[in-house]
Amino acid sequence: MKSYLFLLLAIIAETIATSALKSSAQFSKPIPSIITVLGYGCAFYFLSLTLEKIPVGIAYAIWSGVGIILITLAGIVLFKQVPDLPAIIGLVLIIVGVIVINVFSKTAAH
Which of 17, 23, 47, 108 fits as disulfide partner to 32, beta carbons 3.0 to 4.6 Å? Predict the structure, then answer.
């Protein structure tokens, strides 16, 4: 269970870092640039802790799937980047994929 907490922290840190990356204006603004570097550092640190118990493919599937959803929500709220219907359909498919992996895959149980 602790591994999933580390994975959640990795996802949150990555989402913050990616949001700050957009605001960094190609690393020309110091504060968002620092947040980006620290956020990615924290994300990879927590992901490394996650990989002690969760297989890398499963952890990465969850990280990328949940991260895509969170960064899409951040894009909507922070940058007014509203996805169109095909993008929403794709996001739903990603969510379904993450659910299938976690509910039905025997690999996720290891």
Answer: 23
Residues 57 and 40: their CA atoms lie apart, in Å, by 19
- Cβ(101)–Cβ(62) below 8 Å: yes
pLDDT tens string 66-106: 999 999 999 999 999 999 999 999 999 988 988 888 788 87
Question: Going by C-beta distance under 8 Å and a sequence separation of 6 or more, which residues neighbour residue 70?
Answer: 11, 12, 15
d(CA 27, CA 5): 30
Q: Tokens representing 32?
A: 């968002």
The angle formed by the CA atoms of residues 15, 75 and 77, to the nearest 5 degrees, is: 105
* Tokens at 69, concatenated: 């959803």
